[in-house]
Write a structure and sequence with these properties.
Elements lengths: L1 H19 L1 E7 L2 H9 L4 E9 L15 E8 L6 H9 L9 E2 L2 E2 L5 E5 L1 H19 L7 E3 L4 E2 L13 E4 L2 E4 H12 L1 H9 L4 E2 L2 E2 L4
Parallel strand pairs: 6-7
Antiparallel strand pairs: 1-3, 1-6, 2-3, 2-8, 4-5, 9-10, 11-12
Helix pairs in contact: 3-4
Amino acid sequence: MRKTLLAAILAMIAIPNMARAETAVFAGGCFWCVETDMDALKGVTSTTSGYTGGTLKTPTYENHGGHLEAVKVEFDPAIISYDALVARFLRTIDVTDSGGQFCDRGDSYKTAIFAAGPKQLASAKAAIKDANATLGKRIVTPVKPFSAFTDAEDYHQNYYLGKKRVLTRFGWIKQSDAYKRYREACGRDARVKKVWGRQAYTDGKAGSDS
């Protein structure tokens, strides 16, 4: 009886929390890196790497037919608002690069904000306008209506946390170490800091001009 009552109470507590959850979808180059940056933000409850914005119904890593690498971000708006989340996202990417991101070139790695509904659309456009005013440069990250999202293959999820060993140009090393070396070699954080200065965010933390 006590266990049944406790379960009922816990279920009642969980319902409001689930109701608060909202979703944002961002494309910012390599989805491993976007996932890392978003996971570090307080209020983000989960992230999923995947594909969106293209034409194929079942995109894969080898063939994603115009889709962008993207990340679905679940967050608690009581802790971080969509406005704040978009602003943070923009400060983790090079919003002036229309050909990809950092060392990853081509359409798959272009940036975009995929807005679900008029409220997110208005918020995202306002964030782009603010970024334009802040940097004094043309922002090439578009705001697009969200339509569908396909989860990437399992081995892409939380790649930066992987413990198994993989063969890379850096040798036979742990997956998480391979990710760190790839990110550094790609110049992602260095470029974001150059673009955004003290407003840059790397690993969920404010950067600096140095």
